[in-house]
Amino acid sequence: VLALLPVGARTAAGQTSLAAVLEPIGTTSELADVLLLGTNGQTLTKLNDTDLPSVTQLVDVNGDNHYELLLARFATLQLIGLGIGDSEYVQEWEYKLDAEPTAMLVIDLDRDGEEEILVGTRDGRLHSLGADRTIRWLNAPGDSIAFLTAVEYSLTHPSRIAVVRRQRLPLDETSETVEALSWLELREPTGERLWEVEIPEHVTSLVVESRPGSGNATLLIGTASSYIAAYDLEGNQLWNQTMGQAIGSVRDMVVLNGVAGSPNSLLVAGNQLISRLSLDNGSILSSNFAVFDSPIEKVFAVRQPDNEELAVNVVLFTADGLVHGLNQQGA
Predict the structure, then answer these.
(1) Is residue 251 within 8 Å of 278, Cβ to Cβ?
(2) Do residues 207 and 253 touch, judged by C-beta distance below 8 A?
(3) Closest listed residue to residue 103, CA positions, set 145, 74, 69, 73
(4) pLDDT tens-place string over residues 276-328
(5) Per-residue pLDDT tens for 25-73?
(6) Euclidean distance between CA atoms 61 and 8, whole angstroms
(7) Can you give the pTM of this predicted structure?
(8) What is the rounded distance in angstroms from the CA atom of residue 82 to the CA atom of residue 66?
(9) Residue 192 CB neighbour total at 10 angstroms
(10) How far, in Å, are 109, 287, 315 from residue 144 at the CA level?
């Protein structure tokens, strides 16, 4: 499994629950399949031979509680109706990016009831599209857009956009053979850049600890050298931590919500180990959360909209094809 795409909080009764992306085994040149799964696990739709499945997303662009698929292919983005309910009448479209899409974010940033589609590409451009393919804005900060995520900090103000750009390396070089630079940015929904921080590392993960209504949020980055850093909304570094060889390159990070008023913690996934970072009276406390026999592929935090406590708080996939469900204690 390469990616898991939950539909969000607006699922209608009896409708689609998630989509899964299956990647080819090993180093074969085969393309990946996208499967749309129903609530009881049956396959509703299958799209064969997609070349950029990790950017593909399940969305509801017209707000009808039925979902469409934003399918990323090389140099293009397609909106595909899935033939379920009103979505079979959605106006499908294709948008030419002129470069490989590398990151995508679909969210109603300005709370106007319409979702925006943000796409970053390998040639360093940011595209903002409306649900009908209308171009809202286009910026070209350069390098390669690696990550996009929303920053929610207010109940009344629009969300902002966290962006990670990475230096484009020559085809015969990797981040292990040359010093790779990255940049962390914060942007307004209009595309205006508020600030930029240079990071002398190859950033491999970005996550935001959003606190709507508090006026605050924390942007967290992880790198190929096991370095973790936290930034506030002004671009100031709050703290940093090197995880060491046990983690190695950071594969993924998720914010785990605390229970019974306890603070949130950050789960940092390396090759086969997940560590938990928590702040206690200004000190950073690190502890092992879970260890696996196979390399970790992807980690997801499981949350209820009303913050109701669940038995399973973390779902992750490992390279041996297994899916694991863990509680707050990593068991």
Answers:
(1) no
(2) yes
(3) 145
(4) 998 766 678 889 999 999 999 888 887 765 555 667 888 888 888 888 999 88
(5) 555 556 777 777 666 667 777 777 676 667 877 777 777 767 778 888 8
(6) 12
(7) 0.84
(8) 9
(9) 12
(10) 23, 33, 29
Report yes or no: 122 and 102 within 8 Å, Cβ to Cβ: yes
Q: Are 220 and 196 in contact (CB under 8 A)?
A: no
Q: Which two tokens stand for residue 175?
A: 């981040």
For the chain, percent of residues with pLDDT exceeding 90: 40
Contacts (Cβ under 8 Å, ≥6 apart) of 303 = 257
Alpha carbon distance 88, 91 (integer Å): 9
**264 residue type, one letter:** N
Query: Residues 259-282: pLDDT tens digits?
Result: 655 678 899 999 999 999 987 666
pLDDT at 15: 45
What the block records as the tokens of 124 is: 């360093």
Q: What is the pLDDT of residues 226-263, one digit of tens each?
A: 999 999 999 999 999 999 888 989 999 999 876 655 67
* Residue 89 main-chain phi, psi, to 5 deg: -105, 5
The tokens describing 187, both together, are 């942007």
Q: How far apart are CA 275 and CA 222, in angstroms?
A: 13
Q: 3-class DSSP state for residue 195?
A: strand
**Residue 277 in tokens:** 């970072």
Q: How far is CA 131 from the centre of its chain?
A: 20
49, β-bridge pairs: none
Structure tokens given for 202: 């190859």
Collect all residues with Cβ–Cβ distance below 8 Å to 276 and sequence separation of at least 6.
256, 265, 266, 267, 268, 286, 287, 288, 289, 330
2-35 pLDDT, tens digit per residue, is: 555 554 444 444 444 455 555 555 555 567 777 7
